[in-house]
Amino acid sequence: MDNPLVLTFDLGTQSMKALLLDKEGNTVLSSQVTYDYPCIPTDIRGRAEQLPDFYYDRLCEAGKLLKEKDTQNLFSHIIAVTITCIRDTGLILDKDHKPLRNIIVWMDERRAKGDPKPPLLHKILFASVGMTETIDLLYKSAQCNWIMEEEPELWAKADKFVMISSYMNYKLTGELKDGAANQVGHIPFDYRNRRWMKKGLSRCVADIPLEKLVDIVDSPGKVGTINKETSERTGITEGIPVISTATDKACEALGLSVTTEDKAAISLGTASTIQFCSPHYFEPCPFLPSYPSAMPGYYNGEYQLYRGYWILTWFIRNFCREESRIAKERGVSVESILDQMLDDVPVGSGGLVLTPHLSPGNNNPFAKGVLMGLSDYHTKAHMYRAIIEGIDLELYHAMLRMQRRSGQHIKELYIAGGGSVSDIIVQICCDVFGLPVKRVQTHEASGLGSSIAAFVAMGVFSSYTDAVKSMVHDKDVFEPNMENHRVYMELYNDVYKNIEKTNTKYFRKLRKFGKEV
Asked: Beta 195-196 vs 189-190: how paired, if at all?
């Protein structure tokens, strides 16, 4: 085929996107279905669930919209379909692969009440590196453990516990299979060897029987072909191969061309992350794994700030009623109004520092958000800039730790996610890190990465190197202001990096005053 195209669906927290990409990395057609609500409304605090077929229905809507836009018969050039999904979003299926309950979305904050029971040697190792509380948090956060405790009758009926990517593959093809690079969650997966773990650390956290786990195929690899129902609802030709690629974050790194050990990918999304790519497996934090890359044989070491740019949503909701009104009148985003204030606030936010731990991370389950240095001259604009700087300082902190543990030395950054749309926010990130920051030709880096993997799997490219060279193009390059970087490094070394360590004992005490889910 002279003009082969890959159709990629990007299943996100807020919307479903359908992207039709060519082998030069151009998005030739796209559609988006924004969810009326990312989760089912509920009065139970911290719950985040979605209806079992909600995402499949939105995928069909996005596919149908795309087909309606196709005035040039581009659908006849599709050689493969892929889907890249949010992570740690699971559901249980019966023996006929029918969902037994709603999907539990990654944002869910419910906790199991039980405790992990690691072997004695593991218990000693966890205690020796201060990871006992982390393992306990991982256990209590595992969706499967909550279902076992609170809904034992459903767990007894469950034939499979799967990630949302596995279920979407089933809905698209009728085959319940999935790739190794999609298995990111509180599940017993051996990330180093890309297979289910029979015994070991992950089974201390989520001891799901092997027979309840999905069949694994190579990533990228074919899981089946588009079935009749999906074809009728979307217009995609029945029989087109469906290729399992990787999770949204792994695909994002590939779509940003982060395929070597001197680059890192930063995502300024709802959850903000920094990712490395390496042919060598390493643990970004003790006992926490690197995940399989979208490229076979490679790993993405990652640090995730669970509440990243979601903090801006929280800030706007609680403190920016006037800016929201103005934005609505002008037909623009609230963030664009707030961004205009940033130039009026000095680097370092006038001595206002924020640690962005509004939800605890795996490496410190007791961490809390801190706003330090508040004075009477600080304004809403200072707080807004302090949030942005705090997220960047936390990701910088993670980069230094990951460099020490991996032996890598990062020389340049590639950036994506909602925050990357703003030039001034990208420049602040650039100044904090003191490194060049690049944006590629599209903000849809996850979809681009998934398409790259499919083109390689279908033989259009003989290697990932060739595919990335053809499909990823640097669009913008931001150079750091080294005077600003000097100020940020003084702030980081003298203040920021010490806040969490110094205050952990107080965070522990504050925990009893907080609301438990």
From this structure: antiparallel
Q: Is the dihedral of CA 418, 421, 424, 427 positive or negative?
A: positive
The residue among 169, 149, 168, 167 whose CA lies nearest residue 159 is: 167
Asked whether the whole model's pTM tops 0.90, one would answer: yes
User: What's the CA gap between 86 and 165, in Å, rounded?
Assistant: 8
Least confident of 56-70, 124-138, 417-431, 470-484: 124-138
- 3-state SS class at 285: strand
Residue pair 171/53 in contact by the 8 Å Cβ criterion: yes
Residue 385, domain extent: 310-439+479-513
Shared-domain flag, residues 237 and 364? no
Is 158 part of any domain? Answer: yes
Residue 473 forms part of a structural domain: no
Last residue of a domain, one of 228, 245, 262: 245
Distances (CA, A) of 212 to 47, 157, 181, 197, 261: 24, 11, 18, 13, 36
Q: Choose one of 230, 245, 260: the last residue of a domain.
A: 245
Secondary structure string (H, E, C) spanning 384-425: HHHHHHHHHHHHHHHHHHHHHHHCCCCCEEEEECHHHHCHHH
Question: Quick one: pLDDT at residue 517?
Answer: 44
Q: Is 244 exposed, middle or buried (0-12, 13-18, 19+ CB in 10 A)?
A: buried
What's the total number of domains in the chain?
A: 2
- CATH (domain of 122): 3.30.420.40
Do residue 328 and residue 422 come from a single domain? yes
Contact criterion met (CB below 8 Å) for 282 and 290: yes
- At residue 85, the 3 state secondary structure works out as strand
Long-range contacts of 372-375 (CB under 8 A, 24+ apart): 372/495, 372/499, 375/350, 375/351
Q: Is residue 463 part of a domain?
A: no
Residues 320 and 212 in one domain: no
Does residue 14 carry a pLDDT above 70?
A: yes
CB count, 10 Å around CB of 371? Answer: 14
Dist. CA 243–CA 225, nearest whole Å: 9
Model confidence over 270-329: pLDDT tens digits?
889 999 999 999 999 887 899 999 999 999 999 999 889 989 999 999 999 999 999 999
Burial degree of 385 (CB within 10 A; 0-12, 13-18, 19+)? buried
What CA–CA distance (Å, rounded) separates 20 from 373? Answer: 49
